[in-house]
Amino acid sequence: MSDYTKVYDGAAKDTAKSTVAGADFDVEFDAIETAVATKANKTGAETLTDKTIDFVSWSEKVASMATTGAVTLDLSAATYFYNTATTGSNTFTFSNPPTTGKVLAFTVELFGGLTHAPTWPASVEWSDGLEPTYTAGKDILTFFTRDGGTTYVGTLSAAGVA
């Protein structure tokens, strides 16, 4: 309790205004102190059961990628990858996926795939087993993994975005 100071005037607890004073203060303060100490000493993952989390906004980390050659997409650093032009073909690798049992989705903006065909890792599985047909413009691809990066499902989300 060295980080806290108990100060009270001896009056009763005012439930209407949710203020605590007098003997109730010790009970309430001790409960708060225990909750804070328990939370501070918690290690590992917490389980949320029957809880609702409302996200007011959501953002993802963005990373630019090379316009030609070997491109490693570090999935621990970003989940949205882009370039503004492609000057040659790209050969992609994916690094640092989450562990098995956790799902990760990431997006790739690809420019000029029609003339500079990309090479994807062999672990990518496409719809109907066919890699999509790319455009000369901007194509948006989305990938998912749930098995630690052993396999990725790739989809063409948007073609020829202008």
List the helices and strands and how they pair.
Layout: H1 23-40, E1 62-64, E2 69-74, E3 80-82, E4 90-95, E5 100-111, E6 124-126, E7 138-147, E8 152-161
Describe this structure in words.
The protein has 162 residues and is mainly β. It folds into two domains: 1-48, no CATH class; 62-161. It has one helix and eight strands. The protein has one helix spanning 23-40; strands spanning 62-64, 69-74, 80-82, 90-95, 100-111, 124-126, 138-147, 152-161. The strands form two sheets. The protein has a six-stranded mixed beta sheet with strand order 1-3-5-7-8-6, with no helix packed on it. Strand 7 (138-147) and strand 8 (152-161) form a beta hairpin. The longest helix has 18 residues, at 23-40. The termini are far apart.
Please trace the helix and strand order, writing H or E for each element. Answer: HEEEEEEEE
Number of helical segments with 4 or more residues: 1
Would you identify the regions where 5 or more consecutive residues have pLDDT less than 50? 1-11
DSSP strand content: 25-35%
Query: How many domains?
Result: 2
- Integer average pLDDT: 80
Largest sheet: 6 strands, mixed
Which percent range fits the helix content?
10-25%
List keywords for this structure.
162 residues; mainly beta; six-stranded mixed β-sheet; 11% helix; elongated
Structure in a nutshell:
The protein is mainly beta. It has one helix and eight strands, in the order αββββββββ. The chain starts with 22 loop residues before the first helix and ends with a strand.
